[in-house]
Amino acid sequence: MAESTNRKTLIGAFVLGGGALALAVIMLFGHMRFFAPSREAVVVFQNSITGLAVGAPVNFRGVKVGSVKSITLRFDPLDRKAYIPVQLTLEPDQIHIVRDVPGGTKVSMQEMIANGLRAELNLQSFVTGQSNIELDFDKSTPAILHPRITGELEIPARLSTMEKLKDTLSDLPVKDIASHADATLLSIKDAQRQDEHGPATADCQRESHHRPLA
């Protein structure tokens, strides 16, 4: 009886030890943070987010500080516009918000947003077409929030360089430019024809001038 009890105790200890070891391995190599609270925020886009997927990295000037948790689509019947809320999970061990003064209070995410924290869609690779979220400070971009779309902490979005270029190109009067280009080409062709026929006409005039009268 005592031997059976000792055997069960040994098996139980082995199982508990194995479970603890497996948990340690998962936490070490799987980056599972059971006891670290995560910070979540939302970025609301109106333009296309082609290439962005759940799990895509969230970077701040190249440093990964989180990942994309979810992507949804919402339509507001009041303004008849579609919005794309992208929920972010920010890693607490990568973002250290320091105190404003020694012994003072920590700067909150709301204060960082008020100081110009913005998010934009960034194309990671032209080959794969994958995109990620880039964070940076930009006070020149107004903070446009969408309280009707989300009630969570929102990081205002700004246009990326590629999006600004697309908007600039779309605003160009392409038809007018093309018509002016066609008119310019026609003028050049007319000038070339005149240059080609000009010497022959001059030769004919000289021949008729020097021809003796009958």
Question: Could you give the topology of this structure?
Answer:
Elements: H1 2-29, E1 39-45, E2 57-60, E3 63-71, E4 74-76, E5 81-90, H2 109-114, E6 117-123, E7 131-137, H3 161-171, H4 174-210
Parallel strand pairs: 2-7
Antiparallel strand pairs: 1-5, 2-3, 3-5, 4-5, 6-7
Structure write-up:
By secondary structure, the chain is of the alpha+beta class. The protein is built from 4 helices and 7 strands; from the N terminus they run αβββββαββαα. The chain has helices at residues 2-29, 109-114, 161-171, 174-210, and strands at 39-45, 57-60, 63-71, 74-76, 81-90, 117-123, 131-137. Strands 1, 2, 3, 4, 5, 6 and 7 form a 7-stranded mixed β-sheet that branches. A hairpin with a 2-residue loop joins strand 2 and strand 3. The N and C termini lie far apart (150 Å).
